[in-house]
Each structure stands twice: as C-alpha cells, then as structure tokens.
Design a protein that fits this description.
With 217 residues, the chain is an alpha+beta fold. It has 2 domains: 1-22 and 197-217; 25-195, Jelly Rolls (Sandwich). The chain is built from 2 helices and 13 strands, in the order αβββββββββββββα. It has helices at 2-21, 199-216; strands at 46-51, 57-63, 74-80, 86-91, 97-98, 104-114, 122-123, 126-132, 138-144, 154-155, 159-162, 169-176, 182-195. The strands form 2 sheets. Strands 2, 3, 6, 7, 10, 11 and 13 form a 7-stranded antiparallel beta sheet that branches. Strands 1, 4, 5, 8, 9 and 12 form a 6-stranded antiparallel beta sheet that branches. Strand 8 and strand 9 form a beta hairpin. Mean pLDDT is 82; it is low at 3-21 and 200-214.
C-alpha cells in the first residue's frame, strides 16, 4: 500500500508540474524588458528591423502609461510613414517556443492602430504564429490581419492552431508593410501563446487524483 501511495504521489506531482508549465510561453510578452543601455529602446528577446527608404519606418519599445493592454505600460511601437517601407518584429532565436510533443496551441495578443506622420491607418499589419522543424525548415503558420478599430486597444479572441507535423519550435512575427500595404502606427502588447492540455493528459490526471482520494479513505 505504501508503494501504491508513493506512485500516486509521484504521478500527481508530475501532473502538477505539467500544469504549472502550461502557461504563457512568450518571453518578454509585454515588452517590459529592454536591451542593455544604450539600446534599452529595443525589446529583449526580440529581433526587429526595417526596410525601404531611410526614415520612413521605425520599430522599438516605448513607454506609454495610457496603455490598457497587457500588465504594464510598455508596448512595441511600429511606425510606417510611407508605402514601400516595412518593419518586422520577430521572436529572437534563443527565445523560440518549444512545441515538441505538443499537438495544439492557443494564442492571442492586443493591438492598436493609429495614424502616423504619413497618414493612415490604411491597410493591415500581419501577425503570424510560425512553426519550424529542427533544421529551421518552415512547417506552417497561423495568420491574423488586424484592422483599424478606431484608435482603441483591441484584444483578438483566443485562437487555436494545430501544431504542424514535424514542427519542433514556434515563433511570433509582427510585420507592417512587408506582406501587404500598410501605412500608420501599429502598437502590439501582451502576446500570449500556450499549449492546450491534451484530453489523455486530463483523463490521466483525473484518474490519479481519484485513486489518491480513494486510497486516503
């Protein structure tokens, strides 16, 4: 009986560890952490870049205490002032999300679109949850195209996406003007990606907890 109780205890501990780990997998998801000075304007654990005529695109981490998205007052700010320029924000390779053994992810984020010096907002940014294998071969992605909501923070409804076969990691990319027309400012905050517990895991947890309860009786 002692051995059975020990097995139950270890199994429950393993299940609880799995539950604890099932949380937001995006490092620096609200951009609260910046790179070391003098590059604190760049978000830690993210890569950012621009293309096109100099001065027409910008991307960086800003402080804005009017933000009602996320859990703090930092957010990522992408400014596209003219057609033909673009800016990207992508998870740093060292902070990609391990999806080994995971079948499904759910994800969401907050955004706000406003006018830039060049007008707008016109067109739509693109936000991708992308999947790759161990050799960095692209395996698939889920795309969201935010649209102008009248200069207010908007949180997209929770999305679910099946991890493509062979994928071992995922990242998040925010693109403005790179894959379609967009002029304006795009603010992004509180990016959330989380694995969905599989039914078999939940069933096992219920059986183990029930067995432990019976043994205590």
């Amino acid at each position: 009986m002692k051995k059975l109780n020990l097995i139950c205890a270890l199994s429950i501990a393993a299940l609880l560890t799995t539950a604890v780990n099932a949380s937001n997998q995006v490092v620096n998801h609200s951009f609260n952490d910046g790179e070391a000075s003098p590059n604190e304007w760049a978000a830690a654990h993210w890569n950012q870049g621009t293309g096109g005529p100099a001065g027409d695109a910008g991307v960086g981490r800003i402080f804005d205490d009017s933000s009602d998205a996320g859990t703090n007052c930092y957010q990522e700010f992408i400014n596209i002032a003219a057609e033909g320029t673009y800016a990207d924000l992508i998870t740093h390779p060292d902070s990609r999300i391990d999806v080994t053994g995971i079948n499904t992810l759910y994800w969401q984020f907050s955004f706000k679109l406003t006018a830039s010096g060049g007008g707008g907002p016109t067109g739509s940014p693109r936000v991708d949850l992308r999947f790759f294998d161990a050799s960095d071969a692209f395996k698939g992605e889920d795309n969201v195209f935010p649209t102008d909501q009248g200069d207010v923070w908007t949180r997209i409804p929770m999305r679910t996406f099946s991890v493509p076969a062979g994928a071992t990691y995922a990242d998040v990319r925010v693109s403005c003007g790179h894959f379609g027309s967009y002029v304006g400012v795009c603010r992004v905050d509180d990016i959330y990606v989380d694995p969905i517990p599989e039914p078999a895991t939940l069933l096992l947890g219920g059986l183990l907890l029930g067995l432990a309860f019976l043994r205590r009786r």
